[in-house]
Amino acid sequence: MMCFVYLTMQRVALLLILLFFSFFLSFSQQTVLIKKLHQNWTLNEKGNNKKYLATVPGTVHTDLINNGVIEDPFYRLNETKVQWIDKKDWVYQSVFDISEKEFAKHHHEIKFEGLDTYASVVLNDALILKSDNMHRTHVVDVKPYLKNGKNHLKIILESPIKKGLALYNNLNYKIPVSANDQAETGEVESGKRVSVFTRKAAYHYGWDWGPRLVTSGIWRPITLESWDDFRIKEFDIKYILDGPAYITTFTEIESSIDNVYANLIIKLDDHNVVNSKVQLKKGQQTIISNFTVKDPKLWWPNGMGNQYLYNCKVQLKQNKASVSSSQKLGLKTIKLDTNDSKDKNNFKFIVNGVPTFSKGVNYIPQDVFLPRVKNSDYQRLLTASVDANMNMIRVWGGGVYEDNRFYELCDSLGLMVWQDFMFACAMYPGDSSFLENVRMEAVDNFNRLKKHTSIVLWCGNNENLSAWKRWGWEQTVIEEQSQKIADKIWHDYDTLFHHILPKVVRDFSLDNKNNYTTDYWASSPSASEGIPESYLSGDTHYWGVWWGKEPFENFNTKISSFMSEYGFQSFPEYESFKKFASNEDQDMYSEVMKHHQRSSIGNATIDEYMKREYSTPKDFESLLYVSQILQADGIRMGIESHRRNKAKCMGSLYWQLNDCWPGASWSSIDYYGKWKALHYNVKRAFNPLIVTHEFVDGNLQVSIVSDQLNSFEGSLEITSRSFKGNKSNVIIRRKVNLMPNEAAVVFKINKDQLPKDIISKQVFYSLRLKENKNIISSKNIFFQPFKEIELSFPELKYTTYYDEKEEKIRVTISAKHFAKAIHIKSNSNLNFSDNFFDLTSKEQKIVDIDLLQGQDPQKIINSIKINSLWDSFN
Ligand code: BMA
User: According to the model, what pLDDT value does residue 29 have?
Assistant: First the structure.
């Protein structure tokens, strides 16, 4: 009986709770409905009735792959077989249902976040939008066209090549465009480079690290937004940090009811900070609210502190209806300091008052077929960047304004974003419709991205100024066309990059005291607005190594205030090679390997540098591996030199983080996600504290560099070791101190005291920087190129162990004799905690890989193979 009463009481309580919630829900309804229109799409070539199932968001190319019409364009030479696609027009169609309840809403808008590119959008037989810019977002009021029940949506995409050709042929002068536009590969009429006429990712037309695959498609989401009486259209936050944070919010309300009171509530991390009554007016109105955070938690770049992000939410309630919007808010001050002192650093970012050395990389889109990039790809790549101790990433101007997901991760990981506008290595048209199109693109993207704490700079273009003023384009136009045409092209450049784009950045980045909060830099590289790069001011792209065939050692002397590009190529590893090529392609100069190399001087340049340092690798797999060691050691030299010279140089962004297809390139992570040897070296070289060296006039100088905000006390050990066996001889062991953020030479050895002749081939120096007993940075110094050095068979030994609890495979490695660049391979796409490291005879190294769910540890363990440089020649 007792039991029955108890149960009944429980039920009553449950009922009461349910009643309470249903009451609450009915009085607090979300009035905005958002529906993705991604279902039931078909694709056909215009004029051909054969329809294929299509994926939205997607591209024509990937739909044709999925329907078995074309083969994977990344495999071997397949890219050449699909060049016809960009000369055709394509039609996407879908039918979507609208229920009576949805239809009853008072307002309906469709948002097109990305149409690639010349699109005509037809809804139920009405043309509702024509668009010609892949980078723009369009919102269309569809209330007059929407039907209760079935709705037909059709998007016709015209060939970007045909459109581009029409614009090209219409112009009475020629616009210079770099050879990255691979018009010949695309069999475009007379090799005409039409890319600059179309507001579409430039790299789709080809680049020196990517194929030519000019896509069409619905590349970003399409959503239908339906609402009743009012909604929050925009929620914008501005602040001034001056001890406390003085925050102002701008809530843009759109209402179809008039003279009605509503409650506006703003919450910061769940605390109510504003609670006010607002009178809704028909049309649009912006409610400005102010509040103060007395003791704000700041946002810091990776390595300098936490990335605190407040959660700021606005809610508007009126009677039963409630709408809301929220935003993450990081509080920081940022300033690009470009003071004009020529003898000191004059290009540096000051974050929260602290001059900050920018350690990072240039980023290109992760795939030619952009909608294929998954959340996990963003996560993997950006996490790899902070794992390698970076704090900055440059979104390069020949790709796209990235997805929100990209910037959200940069916000939470502490990666400052240098954001280019999408212009690269070309001059551009200057007619009014082109300029207005670009202006709107800038407005769309600036406003979409301004809420992201991570963005620290907007830059007008990549290398357009260099091309015009330094690569000789201006002169060629004067000679081949006329001075008048050269003046016109420069005038258009000036209009776009010195007036239109900076005005957008200024207009939309004013704080509540009318100060600009976002910096604009007209071109990378440049000394200042309209003035080409110089090593005395501004940022530079140093390509003497690679394009100029200069020795890697030149990194030690070619130093500017900010090195925003420099790099060297390598091949992807053998496991990756096997994914895009076949056995018969195992030659650096095979058709397939040449095809997957798009730099005009590519494989021969890798070859030339390799011969300077190494003997000929014994086979193709070794060649791929040695190319990575070559790249890794070369770029490490660059990074360390920039950091050693931090009194002069405050930024080092190497070219490039990632790939958009598989092939030879400057990347440190290959298309399949494998870290090349370079990425491990970047991690070492960007460590907050490093020990580093250089030879100055033959004398050895050892330095330590700190990016720490507190001083450092530790010890330095330099030991001479033999390649064979374990003979060693301590050269120095001493205490070292560094002030915060300092770089200093701590030890010098005169060239007369360094190993010479035969000895220099038998010994190396090992540098160790220790804090307490822990090694925090180490480096080996070799006195001869490896082709001269007498390496011994290292007799590597390893054991493996699977840690079930931590889901890690642990590999313990040791060597009998010195081993250079030990590479642990497995046939999984996972990366090891360390790789491509040197091991001396007495050391033991433990590395591990974190398994993903469902991965069979035994399979991976069985596939593990270990080799080192020695194996490439023996
Ligand atoms: C830089 C970039 C890219 C190019 C790279 C390698 O200058 O801006 O245009 O891919 O060089 O050549």
Answer: 53
Residue 30 has pLDDT above 80, yes or no: no
Q: Which amino acid is at 341?
A: S
Q: How far is the CA of 186 from the centre of ligand 1 (A)?
A: 21
What single letter denotes the amino acid at residue 262?
A: A
Ligand 1 centre and the CA of 566: distance in Å?
A: 9
Full-prediction pTM beyond 0.70?
Answer: yes
**Mutation pick for ligand 1 pocket among 655, 656, 658, 661 (CB with most ligand atoms within 8 Å):** 655
Q: Whose CA is nearest to atom 1 of ligand 1?
A: 565
Ligand 1 site-directed mutation target among 363, 565, 568, 666, most atoms within 8 Å of CB = 565
Q: What are phi and psi of 794, to 5 degrees?
A: -75, -15
Q: Are strands 149-158 and 245-255 parallel, antiparallel or unpaired?
A: unpaired
For ligand 1, atom 6: residue with the closest CA: 208
Q: Distance, CA 569 to ligand 1 centroid (Å)? A: 11
Cα 363 to averaged position of ligand 1 atoms, centre (Å)? 11
Tell me how far the alpha carbon of residue 466 lies from the centroid of ligand 1, in angstroms: 12
Cα distance between residue 163 and residue 689, in whole Å: 53
- Cis upstream peptide for 855 (omega within 30°): no
Mean residue pLDDT across the chain: 95
Question: Considering only CA atoms, which residue is closest to atom 3 of ligand 1?
Answer: 208
Q: Is 834 exposed, middle or buried (0-12, 13-18, 19+ CB in 10 A)?
A: middle
- Tell me how far the alpha carbon of residue 245 lies from the centroid of ligand 1, in angstroms: 40
**Distance from C-alpha of 185 to C-alpha of 83, rounded to nearest angstrom:** 8
- DSSP code per residue over 417-463: EEEE-S-BSB-----HHHHHHHHHHHHHHHHHHTT-TTEEEEEEEES
Longest C-alpha distance within the chain, in Å?
A: 105
Alpha helices in 91-148 (DSSP H): 100-103
pLDDT of residue 526: 98
For the CA of 208, the closest atom of ligand 1 is: 10
530: left (phi > 0), else alpha (psi -120 to 50), else beta? left
**Alpha-carbon span 789 to 873, nearest angstrom:** 12
Nearest residue to 682 (alpha-carbon basis) of 646, 718, 628: 628
Question: What's the gap in Å between 598 CA and the centre of ligand 1?
Answer: 11
* Helix (H), strand (E), coil (C) string for 434-447: HHHHHHHHHHHHHH
Confidence of residue 742 (pLDDT cuts 50, 70, 90): very high
Residues of 272-306 as b/e, b for ≥16 C-beta within 10 angstroms? ebbeeebebeeeeeebebebebeebbbbbbbbbbe
Quick count: other Cβ atoms within 10 Å of Cβ 853?
5
d(CA 652, CA 362): 10
Atom 12 of ligand 1 has which residue's CA nearest to it?
Answer: 208
Q: What residues flank ligand 1, with Cβ below 6 Å?
A: 207-209, 424-425, 462-463, 541, 565, 655
